[in-house]
Amino acid sequence: MIIVKKLIKRFGLKNILRGLDFSVASGEFVALLGPNGAGKTTFLRILATLSRPSMGYVKVAGHQLPGEAAQVRARLGVVSHMPLLYPDLTAEENLRFYAQMYGIANYQSRISEVLEMVGLENRRKDLVRTFSRGMQQRLAIGRAVIHDPEVMLFDEPYTGLDQDASEMLDEVLRSVAAEGRTVVMTSHDLARAEDLATRFDILSRGVIAASATQKELQNTNLLAFYKQALAD
Amino acid sequence: MTNKMQNEEGRMQNTDSIHPSSFITHPSLLKATFAIVQKDLAAEFRSFELVSAMLVFSLLVIIIFNFALELDVKVRQSVTAGVLWTTFAFAGTLGLNRSMATEKDRGCMDGLLLAPVDRSAIYFGKAISNLAFMLIVEAIVLPVYSVLYNVNLFRLDLIGIILLGSIGYVAVGTLLSAMSVQTRTREVLLPILLFPVAIPVLLAAVKASNGLLTGAEFAEVLIPLNILIVYDVVFIAVAFMVFDFVVEE
């Protein structure tokens, strides 16, 4: 579903990604881990068509970037630590706006379906600025899945969430993944990543330093694997 | 590694037919533009953050000018165009900054850029919303100005010039605000970028408005009027072509 070969991203003279190779099969849930400044967000922004690669080959959902960015965007849902929602619109109005931007026909039923999925059907008429951070993040996931994307990208979705909100987000993430979507998530929360993902890639100094599936990690834990990958 | 990737690529092409996002279509430029305008107007009519700031600023400026320029009726008529366009330009800058900042601050600009629409729709949507806000403020400022300065501004030809001038100002302002909003010094940077580029439209608007208010010959008004029309067309076309590059990292 995602294929990346020898990806390089430069900002001025600084190389952020240095020949990164990465691939994700359909239905996989990959946790992209790594220290601050490793290039996780930059990499996700390239996959999300929000940033152009300097060099290299990137293909998402059968379309090459940056040339076929519009086709990729139609099949992609993105959730970041910012909600990408308008505080002066209601939950329903926000979803309606994004449904119109994705050209969804008969969006009213889809909006109800999505609000139910993220547990906000009772707050559909409330302004987003009255929502807690956790509720905004759930609605942000609703926004990202409104067009039923095949690929989901999550960039630090747990930032600023308390324990209860994080647990609710876990459930929403599980339901998103359970529908057969391909998911790539960056996170610093190793425990949550270990619980949710089927594969763990460690991004360090602009390349994938190590990769392991959940099965391969059965004899060790993710924290030990992560520390070992960064030490190598 | 290469074989593995080729296999995955093949697998991926197979799955493409299994999981099409079948119920979405790429919305037309017009529909996407309309959705953005509708969203901006709905948010603004709920909060009145942007229009109220522009309006209060505009009223304060014309009241300050009213006290600063202790002039007779004739002289007042000759400075009207200058005072009006100075007010519109500064208030417009406030609105342009705020309008783009609301998209940037909560990451909503990324939300717009992620939609499978022609990115010109984002430009046209924001420009039409900004124009609507500017016209609302102008519609309130004009009668207040008429009362304070005892000048009749309710003339169709003058309103036409104000409309053309506002279109040109917003056309270039929306493009430049999309650039400046990505910097830390956006409030300072926008006027610095905008005013030099907007000089032709502001000068032409002042000249044409002044000509109409002082009862000049039509031929005298025609030249700045033509400049306004050409400026509007050129900057809308330029923005249509370059907006994609402006908003991309």
Can you describe this structure?
The complex is a heterodimer of chains A (232) and B (249). Chain A has 232 residues and is an alpha/beta fold. Chain A has a domain at 1-75 and 152-160 and 182-232: Rossmann fold (3-Layer(aba) Sandwich). Helix content of chain A is 35%, strand content 27%. In chain A, the strands form two sheets. In chain A, strands 6-7-8-3-9-10 form a six-stranded mixed β-sheet, with helices on both faces. A four-stranded antiparallel β-sheet of chain A has the order 2-1-4-5. In chain A, strand 9 and strand 10 form a beta hairpin. In chain A, helix 3 crosses helix 4 (107-117) and helix 5 (133-145) runs parallel beside helix 6 (163-178). Chain B is an all-alpha fold and 249 residues long. Chain B has one domain (27-247). Chain B is built from nine helices and no strands. Chain B has helices at 2-18, 29-47, 49-68, 73-105, 108-114, 120-149, 156-180, 186-213, 218-247. In chain B, helix 4 (73-105) runs parallel beside helix 7, helix 7 (156-180) packs parallel to helix 9 and helix 8 (186-213) packs antiparallel against helix 9 (218-247). The model of chain B is unreliable at 1-20 (pLDDT under 50). The interface between A and B is large, with 50 and 45 residues.
